[in-house]
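stage 2 :: seqdesign
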């Protein structure tokens, strides 16, 4: 299990961005970059961060990559970053063309100077709206923890300083419960012993194994993904808090690609990427068509304003993490 001590988001981003660059990330794709016959760059770099501990995140993007290569005529080069900050820094440095962001990371990217356009947000199943919830969790046998107020003085697992459902919304919830005064490192550490587990499944497992008294992870990771994998038993953890619905994770394009390319990508993501279309095109079958490690059903159009709720929580918590 990957566990991180408290650290600067900016420092983490530098290290991760450096790793992306050294590993062969493509250079900036400005509007003057050589294009293929369909008007897209010869190579498009897509970067993402695993929501769970994963050695092969690329596999979960397989059907999506096949479709993008067919639709754009480009080679899609996938890059797995070690944390959210790495993708943010990659976008800012114009080493990443497309990225799959959690809502918080998307907001932070813009705040820190990345010029990007949302292409579409993922949905869990057909007909649903994008969005998910953060869970406050503890072991089912913990009778003394029944709400966020009981997290005071405990060893608490967060996911990552750049995680929407694993850090930002939990800090807002802890403030509302009167456990912390703000989302600052000092106030959090004064109220509890924070641990940054690095991934949602790692946070849930640390709670289940007793390495943390309580903590946070997003809803479907605990309710479905980890149970389906056999990592958690039904009822092993109890949910003592749920956040409001958070805007869905989003695919975004680096504005350096140019308006024409971004317009085409918007159409592809909003209208051509879902399980039914992927399966009909022969890229995959059944559940193998679910993409990203969020196991998404499809993508729907989304506007930047959908993430104003995240920006509001940043204002409420005063978290420096919102500024990178």
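stage 2 :: out
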């Amino acid at each position: 299990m990957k566990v991180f001590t408290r650290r600067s988001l900016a420092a983490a981003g530098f290290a991760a961005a450096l790793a992306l660059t050294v590993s062969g990330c493509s250079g900036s794709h400005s509007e003057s970059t050589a294009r293929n016959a369909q008007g897209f760059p010869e190579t498009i770099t897509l970067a993402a961060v695993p929501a769970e501990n994963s050695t092969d995140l690329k596999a979960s993007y397989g059907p999506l990559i096949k479709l993008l290569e067919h639709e754009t005529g480009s080679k899609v080069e996938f890059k797995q970053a070690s944390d959210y900050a790495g993708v943010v820094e990659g976008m800012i440095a114009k080493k990443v063309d497309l990225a799959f962001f959690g809502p918080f990371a998307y907001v932070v990217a813009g705040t820190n100077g990345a010029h990007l356009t949302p292409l579409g947000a993922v949905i869990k199943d057909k007909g649903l709206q994008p969005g998910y919830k953060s869970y406050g969790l503890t072991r089912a046998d913990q009778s003394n923890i029944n709400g966020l107020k009981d997290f005071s003085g405990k060893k608490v697992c967060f996911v990552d300083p750049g995680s929407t459902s694993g850090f930002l919304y939990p800090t807002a919830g802890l403030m509302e419960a009167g456990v912390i005064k703000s989302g600052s490192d000092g106030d959090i550490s004064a109220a509890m012993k924070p641990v940054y587990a690095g991934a949602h499944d790692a946070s849930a497992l640390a709670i289940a194994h007793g390495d943390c008294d309580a903590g946070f992870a997003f809803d479907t990771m605990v309710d479905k993904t980890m149970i389906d994998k056999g990592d958690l038993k039904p009822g092993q953890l109890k949910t003592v808090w749920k956040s409001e619905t958070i805007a869905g994770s989003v695919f975004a394009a680096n504005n350096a690609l140019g308006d024409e390319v971004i317009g085409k990508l918007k159409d592809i993501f909003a209208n051509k990427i879902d399980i039914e279309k992927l399966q009909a095109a022969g890229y995959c079958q059944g559940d193998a068509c679910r993409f990203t490690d969020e196991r998404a059903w499809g993508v729907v159009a989304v506007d930047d304003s959908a993430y104003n709720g995240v920006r509001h929580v940043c204002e409420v918590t005063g978290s420096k993490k919102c500024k990178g």
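stage 3 :: structure notes
- Residues 9-22 form the longest helix (14 residues).
- The longest strand covers residues 116-123.
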